[in-house]
């Protein structure tokens, strides 16, 4: 599968892999991610489905789009004051067994 963030039309999308070296039609996850600049896929909640963490620089938000396993995602704002956020990362940075999220902003 392939996921994309588009700052030009505020869209986060998913393109399912069809298993034949190609991708299916674009499925819109969100069309209101203001300035969606980058994303990372990671299983944040431990349910084996990949979730998306999205950096949206027009509304200064880092948001989690939780995959419910049925092809839809639920949005949860993680941080709403990331001034001109450009990128996100997900990793167990502190070694405690939980996934942590980091972001980088233009002015940081």
Automatic annotation (TrEMBL):
This is VCBS repeat-containing protein. InterPro entries: FG-GAP, Integrin_alpha_N. It comes from Calcidiscus leptoporus. Transmembrane segments: none annotated. It comes from the Eukaryota. Keywords: Signal. The keyword Signal applies. The lineage of its organism: Eukaryota, Haptista, Haptophyta, Prymnesiophyceae, Coccolithales. Gene3D superfamilies: Integrin alpha, N-terminal.
């Amino acid at each position: 599968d392939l996921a994309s963030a588009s700052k030009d039309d505020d869209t986060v999308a998913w393109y399912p892999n069809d298993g034949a070296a190609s991708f299916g039609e674009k499925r819109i996850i969100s069309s209101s991610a203001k300035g969606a600049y980058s994303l990372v896929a990671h299983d944040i909640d431990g349910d084996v489905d990949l979730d998306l963490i999205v950096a949206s620089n027009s509304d200064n938000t880092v948001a989690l789009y939780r995959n419910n396993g049925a092809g839809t995602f639920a949005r949860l704002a993680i941080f709403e004051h990331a001034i001109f956020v450009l990128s996100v990362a997900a990793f167990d940075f502190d070694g405690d067994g939980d996934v942590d999220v980091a972001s980088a902003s233009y002015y940081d």
